[in-house]
UniProtKB/TrEMBL annotation:
Pfam families: RebB
Protein name in the entry: RebB family R body protein
InterPro entries tied to this protein: Killing_trait_RebB
Domain of life: Bacteria
Length: 86
């Protein structure tokens, strides 16, 4: 059986150790990246929901103002109808 130079086996061993030693850092960086992406999507959804709530609030306010302004015309129409149909 042929012997291999110790420098070669040492270089191969060191490169394997380097890969194994870096794997926890790579895994943790993937976790952090996934968490950051999820947090970004969460904030996007929160902003979108808030925007929709603002639109609904403006629509409700507009409907309320329209009803307030139309009260006089409804009262006028009822009184005119009573005058015309005794």
């Amino acid at each position: 059986m042929a012997t291999v130079n110790e420098q070669i086996t040492d270089a191969v061993t060191q490169s394997n150790v380097k890969v194994v030693a870096e794997s926890p850092a790579m895994a943790l960086s993937n976790v952090y990246q996934s968490a950051a992406h999820s947090t970004g999507i969460m904030f996007e959804n929160a902003v979108n929901a808030q925007n929709q709530q603002n639109i609904l609030g403006q629509a409700a306010t507009t409907q309320g103002v329209i009803q307030i302004y139309s009260m006089d015309t409804i009262a006028d129409a009822v009184s005119i109808a009573k005058i015309l149909n005794p």
